[in-house]
Inverse folding.
């Protein structure tokens, strides 16, 4: 990376970092999309089971990954202020932390998974599929989080094409493994929706292997001697990462959990048909969200690099172009979604009632996506400044004090039904976007006051 000195050069640098992240995110999401679509082709119970299992897993995955995401702004700032000698030590400590967090997740799942599903009062077959889907997925937890540390290490230096290359290679493996384990091809057992969990776990091991291979094959990262030179585990180093990572992780958890909780509540309040329709909407809108999410991740890198180099005016310019870009993309996407919502739903299910309900929910989802794009971009900027504690408070209030309660009241006590939950999500995301904007202005003002003449 470099400190660009004109607007066009900044835009060029930003795009060069952004587009590989975009390809990576879309590829990663393609794995989840394949899980959902192939499971839906087996039957509505399989689609609902994978939906319930994914909804329980995603907040955990995004929360832990959020903690490890602290690697990105820290590495970017080390690079920006020419302290690259600190990177090896910090990343190695992140490996240790990732293993510890992975083991905690697996052990917690052993004791909590079945009781949680029992409380939800699901249809027996949906319960069985959801439980065993997560059992299969658990076999890939450790490689998943280790590879995420490596991804954040690559991305923090602006080497986003490395992760893109790895992920694009892994996607075909995931598709073939799903085709084998779900439908019983290539001599593998036909496990239905459950097979998607095992296919994804194996794919995570492939991604880890390729990520480690890159640290030895590419000169620009080989110099850090990862997996060659080891250091002793350090609680002090973990504490430093956790002080940044935990607020990021909790912020992401609170956001991801509103969609998970909505799915779980729909599972207890409505029919399997409604679960399937909700999963269709969540799956496709999440796919569209990969673009503003990619922009958010790119913003963390370029803003972190600029702040590390004391280039605060450049950080402001990156924030402006990135946040507006994310909103513009989803504004165009909203028009597309409005006109093609029914054909999109038919990609997931051939059940007419499921498709009609999904097309109604899509109308509300169109609205919430604009707020989602704004809050994602603003959060990415704030992470670049390593400003994470106040945003954590904002996300908690937005999603758990405003979003979930208002959605539940609308769903349970009005004729809106499941659509009420999506209106609640829209309210929460809008509050978050406004809160992040106010916080960013305060942070930028403080930086300006600390650097007279800016």
């Amino acid at each position: 990376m470099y400190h660009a000195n004109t607007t066009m050069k900044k835009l060029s640098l930003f795009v060069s970092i952004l587009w590989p992240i975009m390809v990576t995110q879309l590829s990663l999401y393609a794995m989840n999309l394949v899980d959902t679509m192939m499971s839906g082709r087996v039957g509505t119970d399989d689609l609902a089971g994978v939906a319930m299992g994914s909804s329980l897993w995603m907040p955990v995955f995004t929360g832990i990954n959020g903690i490890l995401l602290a690697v990105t702004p820290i590495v970017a700032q080390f690079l920006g202020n020419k302290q690259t000698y600190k990177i090896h030590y910090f990343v190695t400590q992140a490996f240790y932390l990732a293993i510890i967090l992975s083991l905690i997740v697996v052990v917690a799942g052993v004791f909590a998974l079945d009781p949680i599903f029992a409380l939800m009062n699901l249809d027996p077959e949906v319960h069985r599929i959801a439980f065993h889907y997560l059992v299969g997925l658990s076999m890939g937890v450790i490689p998943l989080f280790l590879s995420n540390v490596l991804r954040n290490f690559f991305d923090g230096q602006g080497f986003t094409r490395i992760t893109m290359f790895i992920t694009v290679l892994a996607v075909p493996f995931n598709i073939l493994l799903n085709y084998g384990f779900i439908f019983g091809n290539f001599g593998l057992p036909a496990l239905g929706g459950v097979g998607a969990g095992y296919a994804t776990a194996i794919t995570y091991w492939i991604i880890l292997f390729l990520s480690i291979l890159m640290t030895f094959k590419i000169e620009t990262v080989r110099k850090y001697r990862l997996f060659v030179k080891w250091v002793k585990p350090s609680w002090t180093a973990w504490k430093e990462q956790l002080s940044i990572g935990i607020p990021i992780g909790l912020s992401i958890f609170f956001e991801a959990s509103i969609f998970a909780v909505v799915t779980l509540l729909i599972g207890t309040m409505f029919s399997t048909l409604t679960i399937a329709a909700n999963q269709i909407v969540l799956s496709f809108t999440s796919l569209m969200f990969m673009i503003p999410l990619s922009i958010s991740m790119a913003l963390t890198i370029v803003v972190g690099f600029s702040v590390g180099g004391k280039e605060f005016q450049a950080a402001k310019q990156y924030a402006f172009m990135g946040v507006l870009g994310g909103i513009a993309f989803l504004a165009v996407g909203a028009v597309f979604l409005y006109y093609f919502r029914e054909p999109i739903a038919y990609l997931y299910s051939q059940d007419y009632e499921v498709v009609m309900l999904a097309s109604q929910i899509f109308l509300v989802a169109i609205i919430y996506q604009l707020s989602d794009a704004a809050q994602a971009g603003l959060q990415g900027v704030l992470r670049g400044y390593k400003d994470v504690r106040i945003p954590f408070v904002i996300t908690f209030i937005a999603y758990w004090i405003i979003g979930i309660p208002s959605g539940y009241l609308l769903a349970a006590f009005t004729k809106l039904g499941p659509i009420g939950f999506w209106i609640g999500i829209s309210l929460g995301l809008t509050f978050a976007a406004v809160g992040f904007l106010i916080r960013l202005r305060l942070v930028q003002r403080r930086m300006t006051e600390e650097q007279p003449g800016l």
